[in-house]
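Feature request, filed as a ticket because there's no other form

It would be nice if the structure record came with a short human-readable summary line next to the tokens. Right now we just get the raw output. Example of a typical job, pasted below so the devs can see what we mean:
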Amino acid sequence: MNEVRGGYNTYGFSVGIMMLRTRFPRIPGDLGNGTTFHFPVRLKVVEEAVYHRVVRADKALVSRFVEAAKELEAEGVRVITTNCGFLAIFQKELVAAVSVPVFTSSLLLVPLVHRMLHPNQKVGIMTVSGENLGEKQFNGCGWSSEDIPVVIAGMEGEKLFTSVFRDDLLSMNVGQMQRDMVAVATRLVSEHPDVGAIVLECTNMAPYAHAVQAAVGLPVFDIQALIRTVYSSLHQRRYLGHQ
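Raw output as currently delivered:
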């Protein structure tokens, strides 16, 4: 048997996820639900990180997320992500704080998605809070809406979706959450037929990505797609005939 090295208390966690402090239900597909992944992930709650502080870009939180990232690195994870796309504002600080890759938000996918589309098409972005999403988050991911044409669709006007996370509700109607998502997505592509693909900013939207894709018939990208891609870069498939 080949020699192996130790140094940690636990093993097998390639992906570390920094979590907001919440109480709302986390269903399969959500980053906080253990059944979401086909591989183990290590979760770390940042106690001071609550919805309002994160969505409103509270810079006082950066030191807490840096501390959490360092703790995850010390525990042996090989990549780090977060469970809120608005944490894109801390992307630069977090990658500078640790030696493992960090990807804070699915908004990092927007330049890639943009390059896939026809020059006349735009990237649609669905977000939990359209009024708070803008250049701060985009710039954190290394791009600007001046360079990449995007259309932002917020969930604030729907019956339930945003209030579950904003008010940290202890229960939710999953069917209504899905209907809210589909309503916003279909309205987005109806009002902006030049949208060629959708990126889901909010990590809590991942459980409904399939329903959105089925409703609009467009490519739909979310944090799960990014996590799976990064995870596969650490665990490449071995093909037959190759050692």
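Something like this underneath would help us a lot:
Residues 18 and 125 are 22 Å apart (CA to CA).
The domain at 15-105+227-234 is CATH 3.40.50.1860 (Rossmann fold).
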